[in-house]
């Protein structure tokens, strides 16, 4: 169905567009024109976007969808519905499903199930090692063929540095990207929060900053050696960000992302044993958070992701260290990113780039931009709408969020995937 | 957040979970009430009828004899019915969550749970999920808090030393894992102690321990100089992971409280220990049994202090509580 998105403020950072433009989408699902109508264009549907922002659909580098294996927490269907309600049109799912995404069949199964729902696009992240056991490499080339856009051991550390070196070397042979959650597991120990003032006062076992520093240092040494294209996931400390910047200046092929919640929350959000703020890597000090923000502004960190981890209610109803880490975060990705604009850290196009074209570039996929001829994945949002995150407002099956009850600003009104309106909110 | 949980809308103590954030006035009210209960233990009939008809459940997910027994005696002296449940944490592996366990017991019409758990925040979690008529006392949660122990410690200090403003207190040992130390530091700071020191090797001191408003020492001799109170802590070997101390012999050689080291403190300094003691590991028998030791009075005081806390939480309002009125000191 051909579509006209009329009168909106179009923000397409990859094409340096930031102003009022109409967007034309042809009946096959591609962008047919920006600003001026293509010849003989007759829209079958018009979306009036006056006062709204029109941007490429959001690209989320990490979202756990819980299927297969943990359907009591969420399903592909429930989370894809949440994604499009939040303006996300493309997302990557890490391989720590059950079974693990370590065979082409698993990668294809997830994509074909997602395809059936016709909502957002899913790109699986393949496992770096079989069963995420950190011992044997996966068939990365076959997994790449089956649609995996990058390879990672998710949150399971590869403790054997030689295995990590081989994994990087093998990935580099085929120009594949590895996603790294760098952390020294021995220094992390049984830690469940930042080793700092709040955790110390609450008597919770801490994860020292040095755990991330040591993990990043090891992985950078191996990246230097293997020249693999590497992406650091969810950096949380000032020191790691500094090391990342130095590596980039030396010309290493490294990128990084940060989660939206690490840009806003700190260890102080754990006060009162708030299990909703239990995440890994842990929420760190204000100094760390400010360093993450500076790295985002300065370009060292190239993407903001949700790191969505929906949980059933009981997962958080336990003493802090026994509660499961993670936030249901798809639906706060856009407003928390826009908050950085409100706080004058970023200009709107910079903020939009961090959740659209720049993560797409990290993945090397054709998404996150509205060039003529590209797939029409579009997010239309009201930048000024104030709304409160409540259990009723959350579409995801997981209601675990430290932002519950908080007022947010900015909300998707329409989401278009492949030229099809997959989400439209009554206004 | 905790403050909102610990007090009801009238500002009355509802749960007793942590010392953090309690005012000097509240702490003194508890101490004064405890003083009025000391005499109960010395009577022939050791009972007052304040909690008659109430049911208290000692819910211990972690082994403890001393603390559980003092809570039990305290509740019985207040005429409550007491049930002791020792639930190994592994029982939750049968599938029941901590909250389900509590909900089942709550369905049996109990009013007060005394909770001990190996994980920080457990009592807090339970308090957040019980109905308004159910009260929680934290009898120790992980490395977080042991507020009734801190109260009996400051009660003992006050009875031997009087005012807190001039006191230098040294807490020695495994501060890293010690809920007693955390609660004790908060109580002493709230009461205006002149200086609180913590003495331990750096492996047993939490990062950023200064943020608790204490002065850290790794030199035992210097740390003990001129202190009025020495509080020894048990080396919590069961909580230790990794190489925290080289050996017990080395630990005693450097941090054990011997008569020679005690001599660095003020001549009238008192020696305390929350128990159970490891003689020859953190404390020499000559000190533990010596004239400056107040370790046994601590245990005795524990009953009165726990009676006071239970009475304040569960008993009738203060104006109809005769035992609590007698002998009450002026509060700040």
Automatic annotation (TrEMBL), chain A:
Could you name the domain of life of the organism this protein comes from?
A: Bacteria
Per UniProt, residues of the Dihydroorotase catalytic domain are 52-237
Q: Boundaries of each Amidohydrolase domain copy?
A: 342-423
State the InterPro entries in the record. Amidohydro_3 (IPR013108), DHOase (IPR004722), DHOase/Allantoinase_Hydrolase (IPR050138), DHOase_cat (IPR024403), Metal-dep_hydrolase_composite (IPR011059), Metal_Hydrolase (IPR032466)
GO terms classed as biological process: purine nucleobase catabolic process; pyrimidine nucleotide biosynthetic process
Q: Which Pfam families match?
A: Amidohydro_3, DHOase
List cellular component terms (GO): cytoplasm
Q: Which UniProt keywords apply?
A: Pyrimidine biosynthesis, Zinc
Tell me where the transmembrane regions lie: none
Task: State one molecular function term (GO).
Answer: allantoinase activity
Q: Which NCBIfam families match?
A: PRK07627.1, pyrC_multi
- The identity of this protein, by name, is Dihydroorotase
Question: Can you name the source organism?
Answer: Sulfurifustis variabilis
TrEMBL record, chain B:
Q: Does the keyword Glycoprotein apply?
A: no
Residues reported to bind carbamoyl phosphate? 66-67, 116, 146, 149, 275-276
Which residues are recorded as binding L-aspartate? 94, 179, 234
EC nos: 2.1.3.2
The UniProt transmembrane annotation reads none
Q: Enumerate the SUPFAM superfamilies for this protein.
A: Aspartate/ornithine carbamoyltransferase
Q: Does the keyword Transmembrane helix apply?
A: no
Q: Which GO terms describe its cellular component?
A: cytosol
Q: Which superkingdom?
A: Bacteria
Write out the entry's keywords from A to Z: Pyrimidine biosynthesis, Transferase
Residue ranges annotated for the Aspartate/ornithine carbamoyltransferase carbamoyl-P binding domain, each copy included: 14-158
Pathway, per record: Pyrimidine metabolism; UMP biosynthesis via de novo pathway; (S)-dihydroorotate from bicarbonate: step 2/3
Q: Where is the Aspartate/ornithine carbamoyltransferase Asp/Orn-binding domain?
A: 166-312
What is an annotated GO biological process for this record, any one? 'de novo' pyrimidine nucleobase biosynthetic process
Q: Which GO terms describe its molecular function?
A: amino acid binding; aspartate carbamoyltransferase activity
Instruction: Report the catalytic activity.
Output: carbamoyl phosphate + L-aspartate = N-carbamoyl-L-aspartate + phosphate + H(+)
Q: Which family does it belong to?
A: Belongs to the aspartate/ornithine carbamoyltransferase superfamily. ATCase family.
Assembly state and interactors? Heterododecamer (2C3:3R2) of six catalytic PyrB chains organized as two trimers (C3), and six regulatory PyrI chains organized as three dimers (R2).
Q: What does this protein do?
A: Catalyzes the condensation of carbamoyl phosphate and aspartate to form carbamoyl aspartate and inorganic phosphate, the committed step in the de novo pyrimidine nucleotide biosynthesis pathway.
**Protein name in the entry:** Aspartate carbamoyltransferase
What organism, scientifically named, is this protein from? Sulfurifustis variabilis
């Amino acid at each position: 169905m051909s579509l006209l998105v009329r009168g909106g403020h179009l923000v397409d950072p990859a094409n340096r567009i930031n102003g009022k433009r109409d967007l034309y989408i042809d009946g096959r699902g591609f962008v047919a024109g920006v600003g001026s109508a293509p010849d003989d264009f007759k829209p079958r549907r018009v979306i009036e976007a006056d006062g709204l922002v029109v941007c490429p659909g959001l690209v989320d580098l990490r979202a756990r969808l819980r299927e297969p294996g943990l359907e009591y927490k969420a399903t592909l269907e429930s989370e894809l519905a949440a994604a499009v309600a939040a303006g996300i049109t493309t997302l990557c799912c890490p391989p720590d499903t059950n079974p693990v995404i370590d065979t082409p069949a698993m990668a294809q199964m997830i994509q074909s199930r997602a395809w059936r729902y016709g909502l957002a696009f899913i790109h699986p992240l393949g496992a770096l090692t079989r069963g995420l056991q950190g011992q044997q490499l996966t068939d990365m080339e076959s997994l790449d063929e089956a649609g995996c856009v990058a390879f990672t051991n998710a949150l399971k550390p590869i403790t054997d540095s030689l295995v990590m070196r081989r994994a990087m070397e093998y990935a580099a042979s085929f120009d594949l990207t590895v996603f790294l959650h760098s952390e020294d597991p021995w220094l992390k120990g049984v830690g469940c929060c930042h080793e700092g003032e709040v955790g110390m006062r609450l008597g919770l076992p801490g994860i020292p900053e040095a755990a991330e520093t040591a993990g990043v240092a090891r992985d950078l040494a191996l990246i230097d050696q293997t020249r693999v294209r590497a992406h650091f996931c969810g950096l949380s400390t000032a020191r790691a960000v500094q090391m990342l910047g130095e590596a980039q200046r030396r010309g290493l092929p490294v990128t990084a992302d940060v989660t939206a919640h690490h840009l806003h929350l700190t260890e102080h959000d754990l006060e009162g044993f708030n299990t909703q703020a239990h995440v890994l890597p842990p929420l760190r000090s204000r100094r760390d958070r400010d360093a993450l923000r500076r790295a985002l502004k300065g370009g060292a960190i190239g993407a903001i992701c949700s790191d969505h981890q929906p949980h059933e209610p009981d997962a958080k109803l336990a003493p802090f260290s026994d509660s499961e880490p993670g936030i249901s975060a798809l639906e706060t990705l856009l407003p928390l990113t826009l908050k950085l604009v409100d706080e004058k850290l970023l200009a709107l196009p910079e903020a939009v780039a961090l959740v659209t074209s720049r993560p797409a570039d990290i993945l090397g996929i054709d998404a996150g931009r509205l060039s003529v001829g590209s797939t029409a994945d579009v997010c239309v949002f009201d930048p000024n709408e104030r709304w409160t995150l409540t259990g009723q407002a959350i579409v995801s099956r997981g209601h675990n969020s430290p932002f519950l009850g908080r007022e947010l600003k900015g909300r998707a009104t329409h989401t278009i995937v492949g030229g099809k309106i997959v989400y439209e909110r009554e206004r | 957040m905790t403050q909102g949980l610990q007090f009801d809308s009238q500002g009355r103590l509802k749960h007793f979970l942590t010392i953090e954030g309690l005012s000097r006035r509240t702490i003194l009210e508890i101490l004064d009430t405890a003083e009025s209960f000391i005499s109960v233990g010395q009577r022939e009939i050791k009972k007052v009828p304040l909690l008659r008809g109430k049911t208290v459940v000692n819910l211990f997910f972690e082994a403890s004899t001393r603390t559980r027994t003092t809570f039990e005696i305290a509740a019985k002296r207040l005429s409550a019915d007491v049930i002791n449940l020792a639930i190994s944490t592994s029982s939750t592996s049968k599938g029941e969550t901590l909250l389900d366990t509590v909900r089942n017991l709550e369905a049996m019409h109990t009013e007060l749970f005394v909770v001990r758990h190996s994980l920080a925040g457990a009592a807090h979690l339970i308090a957040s999920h019980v109905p308004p008529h159910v009260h929680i006392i934290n009898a120790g949660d992980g490395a977080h808090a042991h507020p009734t122990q801190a109260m009996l410690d400051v009660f003992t200090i006050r009875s031997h030393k009087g005012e807190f403003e001039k006191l230098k207190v040294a807490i020695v040992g495994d501060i890293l894992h010690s809920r007693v130390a955390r609660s004790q530091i908060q109580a002493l700071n709230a009461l205006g102690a002149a200086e609180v020191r913590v003495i331990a090797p750096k492996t047993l001191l939490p990062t950023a321990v200064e943020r608790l408003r204490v002065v850290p020492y790794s030199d035992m001799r210097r740390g003990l100089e001129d202190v009025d109170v020495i509080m020894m802590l048990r080396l919590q070997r069961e909580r230790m992971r990794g190489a925290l101390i080289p050996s017990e012999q080395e630990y005693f050689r450097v941090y054990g409280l011997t008569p020679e080291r005690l001599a660095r403190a003020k001549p009238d300094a008192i020696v305390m220990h929350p128990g159970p003691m490891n003689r020859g590991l953190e404390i020499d028998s000559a000190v533990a049994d010596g004239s400056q030791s107040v370790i046994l009075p601590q245990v005795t005081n524990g009953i009165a202090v726990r009676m006071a806390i239970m009475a304040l939480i569960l008993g009738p309002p203060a104006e109809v509580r005769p035992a609590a009125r007698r002998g009450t000191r002026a509060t700040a």
